[in-house]
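Help needed: design a sequence for this.
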């Protein structure tokens, strides 16, 4: 396998928040593989959709021409993150995940949330 080309600083793939959000997607897929089959079109699909929405909105916002649009997409990513946490709370209450698994996903989610908040604050300062 060839090494990846260096990522430009202005490229969304170089953003640590995007990278950690993708880690959250991977973790979400791994955890939902063990859900009951009858959840495939229910909670499994909802978790996966919400998880993918986080880095997708970070990337889309980064590609926008206007700073306000970027901030708006980061806000949407943050909303998807809260939706994802809610779905995982439900999965925990249903007994689909252990407390250790929930702790892992919530720790990563909090990290991504903090990073989104910091990025939005920096962009608002830049815009101001």
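Sure. Designed sequence:
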């Amino acid at each position: 396998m060839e090494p990846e080309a260096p990522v430009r600083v202005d490229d969304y793939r170089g953003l640590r928040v995007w990278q950690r959000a993708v880690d959250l997607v991977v973790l979400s897929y791994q955890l939902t593989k063990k859900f009951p089959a009858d959840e495939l079109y229910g909670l499994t699909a909802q978790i996966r959709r919400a998880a993918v929405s986080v880095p997708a909105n970070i990337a889309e916002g980064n590609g926008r021409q206007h700073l306000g649009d970027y901030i708006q997409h980061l806000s949407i990513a943050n909303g998807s993150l809260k939706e994802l946490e809610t779905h995982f709370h439900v999965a925990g209450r249903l007994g689909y995940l252990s407390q250790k698994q929930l702790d892992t996903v919530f720790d990563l989610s909090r990290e991504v949330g903090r990073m989104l908040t910091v990025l939005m604050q920096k962009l608002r300062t830049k815009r101001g």
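The two ends are 45 Å apart (CA to CA).
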